[in-house]
Amino acid sequence: MTYLLLNLPFLAAAALVAVAAGIARRSPRWRAIGFAAIPLVVLTAVFDNVIVGTGVVAYADDRILGIRLGVAPIEDFSYALAAIVLLPSLWSLLARRPGPRAEQHPQPRPQQHPEPRP
To answer: 10 and 78 in contact (C-beta within 8 Å)?
Structure first.
């Protein structure tokens, strides 16, 4: 099994949740996600290169696509990509939004305590 095949279920799950959020009209703000992706990808590149370069993690050459950013294979970035898409999409999809019933039930007033007697 290649690392790309190993990553496909995670990427597919992230894509399905993003599509579900879009269908439910609760799509996350993609521009904000894009801006957040920049430091996440940069940090992933730095730390992946450190752990692969120092030998903490090794990849079999016959199981990767062969595309590398530094010494880290491109497949190593798929988890960051899945997180960038999945977490905001899931957050948007599961966010509680006030509906028409929220206006029907006013907030209870706080209890008033009687003033102490002298």
So the answer is: yes
